[in-house]
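fyi for ur records
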Amino acid sequence: MSGVFFATARYALYAIRPAFPGTAKTNGRNEMLLQLVQYALLATSRAVQLVLNARVRSFAGDFALTAYLRFIGCLLDIAYHFPRVMGRHYVAPGLQLADAVLIALAAVEVYQAATLPRVEQNVADEDE
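which gave:
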């Protein structure tokens, strides 16, 4: 997973290119490495949870509402790049392929939240 994120950061692979007037500020090596680790850990944890949900055929690890709101946030992030939706802007961050991986994971999570049954938590009351 970290190889995907390293390739997108190292070779500047974008699904939607950034728009910067003049020269763009580039991230330092330490900042790029930190972002690489952050993306890799986030995507790996979500992917492992999605695989576990599929194996046990129930939705766990997050609230369904959180999955829906995360996906709506991803859709708004994509919509930000289209002038017909959000209007024209001269400075826009790009949408890296690493972000596209996280969006795909969010879409799978929404599918699981909508179709799989929830895990019921029965906590026994402690009597003293």
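The mean pLDDT is 80. thats all i got for now
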